[in-house]
Amino acid sequence: MFDSLRSKLKNIRTKFGSSIEDAAEPVAEQPRIEEKAAEPAVPAPEPGPAPAADTPEQKPAAPAPAPPKEERTSPTFFNKLKVLVTEREVLLQEKDIAEPLFELEMVLLESDVALPVTDEIISRMKKELVGKNRRIGSSVDDLVLATLRSALCGVLGDGLDLREYIRQHDRPVKILFTGVNGTGKTTTVAKVGHYLTENGFSVVIGAGDTYRAGAIEQIKTHADRLGIKVIQHQQGADPSAVLFDAVQYAKAHNVDVVLADTAGRFHNRANLMNQLEKIRRVMKPDLVLYVDEAVAGNDAVIRADEFNRTVGTDAVVLTKADMDPKGGAAISVAHTVGKPIAFLGTGQGYGDIMPFAPNKVVDELLGGET
Ligand SMILES: Nc1nc2c(ncn2[C@@H]2O[C@H](COP(=O)(O)OP(=O)(O)OP(=O)(O)O)[C@@H](O)[C@H]2O)c(=O)[nH]1
């Protein structure tokens, strides 16, 4: 997952590290200048018996003269003070890290991170690093890693813990899955069903994709394998009626969660959007999950945003993260849409679904290091 971005971020970390080390170079020279300034001009008298106070030769030595003027005020000395370093703390100026910041910006954009999200990450990096005394500690990389981690976490949002959501809401909790054709919506319904039953919740699936040939059979096959009940009508039936029945079934049988599959659709197809509006009116979902594929990169982010503006979305599921080397959609979507990511799909098996935890995703991006 996100292999290409991970290796690029690793290079960037090294570059930030050497820029900061370069900026921190005067650390070796500054104490030498101070030591020199503190050296007494006259050697200290040999220790001996306490002298009488009134003999002139026994007066205390004169204070050490200041270091030569040119040494204190020389331009090289002050140039070096552009970076003030004390005990491995560094005060960086923006130009000290301009190069790695620019490279980070390019890497994020090449990896399909949306422009406003890239800008936000860069601005968070600057804010963390520039103009503040930063402790370098034993390793510059620790500082870079912590800063990158905090900038990435800052745009990833908090995620959505579906188990917690269900625990806090009246049953049945009704979850409507929407999204574009072929992105993995039906498989995701099955995976979420599996995840919830594994976590002790009872589930019923509504086969609301009555449009695509074979869709009802597809969801039924998944559900049968997982031992989950499916409510279905004929192909071509009104999906609102199917999903209404699924909710009624859940109420009658004390089922915790209704998972409503729907046909794939684009936000600009008016008739399908009207159909979705009707489904919402009839079924009254608690959560609308927008499903798209991580591999679609920026397209997925734009579609999620448009879908949210048109019909509303409560959270996003990004499928096929296992096939996505770039990670751009996963980084950008929550910040762009303003809605959390609930899950990442990480393969074709029923267990290949990962509740979205920003820390875990950042670990993945930064090479599994904390
Ligand atoms: N590698 C990988 N493949 C996935 C993932 N999720 C779904 N797929 C595959 O994507 C393909 C399409 O999945 P479907 O669930 O049929 O897609 P859909 O969105 O329901 O399609 P429509 O019904 O046309 O809207 C299938 O081959 C799935 O196995 C994932 O997380 N990783």
Automatic annotation (TrEMBL):
Subcellular location: Cell membrane; Cytoplasm
Predominant place of localization: membrane
Gene3D superfamilies noted in UniProt: P-loop containing nucleotide triphosphate hydrolases, Signal recognition particle SRP54, nucleotide-binding domain
Region (Disordered): 15-75
SMART domains the record matches: AAA, SRP54, SRP54_N
UniProt keyword annotation of Signal present: no
The keyword Amino-acid biosynthesis appears for this protein: no
Keywords: Cell membrane, Cytoplasm, GTP-binding, Hydrolase, Membrane, Nucleotide-binding, Receptor
Residues given in the record as GTP binding sites: 179-186, 261-265, 319-322
Catalytic activity: GTP + H2O = GDP + phosphate + H(+)
UniProt EC number: 3.6.5.4
Pfam family, one: SRP54
SUPFAM superfamilies referenced in this protein's UniProt entry, alphabetically: Domain of the SRP/SRP receptor G-proteins (SSF47364), P-loop containing nucleoside triphosphate hydrolases (SSF52540)
Annotated ranges, domain SRP54-type proteins GTP-binding: 340-353
Membrane topology type: Peripheral membrane protein
PROSITE patterns to which the protein is assigned, alphabetical: SRP54
NCBIfam families named among the record's database cross-references: ftsY (TIGR00064)
SUBUNIT field: Part of the signal recognition particle protein translocation system, which is composed of SRP and FtsY.
Main function: Involved in targeting and insertion of nascent membrane proteins into the cytoplasmic membrane. Acts as a receptor for the complex formed by the signal recognition particle (SRP) and the ribosome-nascent chain (RNC).
Family of this protein: Belongs to the GTP-binding SRP family. FtsY subfamily.
Name of the protein in its database record: Signal recognition particle receptor FtsY
Species the sequence originates in: Methanoculleus frigidifontis
Lineage, top ranks: Archaea, Methanobacteriati, Methanobacteriota, Stenosarchaea group, Methanomicrobia
